[in-house]
């Protein structure tokens, strides 16, 4: 039986899942591929760290050359994370004529094009299904299954950690800090969870999705990013009173050849299919010109689900090796990048504010919206007991974003308004 040798870089959460699944399913996978699959070397930082899955300790190494320069290794799986080292290792692997599988969205969002060009030049595969939405097979769905349709918009809940935190705050009443700790102990969060909670991880995934869905070379600088660190339990509760759920949502939309990509905490009407995507689950909602609306849902992070995507990429590489067609399935953006004018963007908005509870203050507020011709869809007022302060929540009708923002600025500075914040609202 022919043998394929694999080198693994990184043996943390996802690496453990890959070794576990490869060991458990070895017989079935080998029969399917018609070859034996040997894990030859595993790069770690610390060989003495206790591991969660049984492995022959002789294959562990702390020297990257043992993996990258071994002529017998056909496929490298990169799971160390980070950018600089991962970039150098993958480049070296491709230059050494090895196929590569990675789950690294930080790297693919910033240097994906360069590495894909190198893969094409070396006639080797570079697959990265696990980099977006963990276990959901969304990248191949966009490039293969939906290839015939013209995609116009994507909405994604693509970060498991923040979705877990917001779900725990919404449904269990837990604090932000407790929910984050729990996401970290479950292995969803990045080594430094700042990139999760500040929206960078979701933005990187939206960059990768935008490349594949629209063939537009969006860069991280093009994405408008707001994380969840300022979302409070009160915001969630008052959104719920108006029939909405707060989620960290990524939106990528093309209009007249120009693209708008943003990641921000957003209110979804409770009836929207994305509103019930909870905990570490992810979902990508795709608007196709002909197919219409479809949603791809499942576990977006964690050891097992991510390992399934990584190993399925490995099998896809082996299939291509068997057919002698590695390096043929490389997608690089073909269209030009044009950012959409902010002034062309329209949305509904949720405004939450505290106002002095005294005669006339409410009409100052409604007069402002009337003057700006911003129409209100829902309004909720509640006194804060014993404080002469009113808690007010508003959902506007669809309005021009720039007009809304300038009106909000006026509102925030009114004498009767003590504090105010707003979120975007996605249509149902
Ligand atoms: P971990 O932090 O759990 O594991 C990283 C592993 O890489 C560890 O085994 C570590 O070694 C090793 N490592 C790190 N730096 C080096 C280095 N410089 N040299 C040698 N070994 C190194 O990360 P995850 O498994 O969570 O994530 C891996 C990748 O997968 C990342 O790109 C992440 O973004 C991505 N990903 C993660 C998901 C998840 O749910 N966790 C889901 C989807 C993608 P040691 O064990 O000795 O410390
Ligand atoms: N930290 C990431 C998340 C892991 O929470 O979604 C999966 O990419």
Helices and strands in order, then pairings?
Elements: E1 3-9, H1 13-24, H2 26-33, E2 36-43, E3 60-61, H3 64-68, E4 75-78, H4 84-95, E5 99-102, H5 105-122, E6 126-127, H6 139-145, E7 151-157, H7 160-172, H8 176-185, H9 194-197, H10 200-214, E8 224-225, H11 233-241, E9 244-255, E10 258-269, E11 281-288, E12 292-299, H12 303-323, E13 346-356, H13 361-371, E14 376-384, E15 389-396, E16 399-400, H14 401-412, E17 417-425
Parallel strand pairs: 1-2, 1-4, 2-3, 4-5, 5-6, 8-10, 10-17
Antiparallel strand pairs: 7-9, 7-11, 9-10, 11-12, 13-15, 13-16, 13-17, 14-15
Helix pairs in contact: 1-12, 4-5, 5-10, 7-8
The chain binds NADPH dihydro-nicotinamide-adenine-dinucleotide phosphate and L-homoserine.
| Count of DSSP strands | 17
Report the CATH topology name of the largest domain. Answer: Rossmann fold
Level-1 CATH class name of the largest domain: Alpha Beta
> C-alpha Rg, in Å?
24 Å
Could you characterize the architecture of this molecule?
It is a single chain. The chain has 428 residues and is of the alpha/beta class. The chain has three domains: 3-134 and 303-323, Rossmann fold; 154-298, Dihydrodipicolinate Reductase, domain 2 (2-Layer Sandwich), CATH 3.30.360; 342-425, Alpha-Beta Plaits. Helices cover 37% and strands 27% of the residues. The chain is built from 14 helices and 17 strands. It has helices at residues 13-24, 26-33, 64-68, 84-95, 105-122, 139-145, 160-172, 176-185, 194-197, 200-214, 233-241, 303-323, 361-371, 401-412, and strands at residues 3-9, 36-43, 60-61, 75-78, 99-102, 126-127, 151-157, 224-225, 244-255, 258-269, 281-288, 292-299, 346-356, 376-384, 389-396, 399-400, 417-425. Strands 7, 8, 9, 10, 11, 12, 13, 14, 15, 16 and 17 form an eleven-stranded mixed sheet that branches. NADPH dihydro-nicotinamide-adenine-dinucleotide phosphate binds next to helix 1.
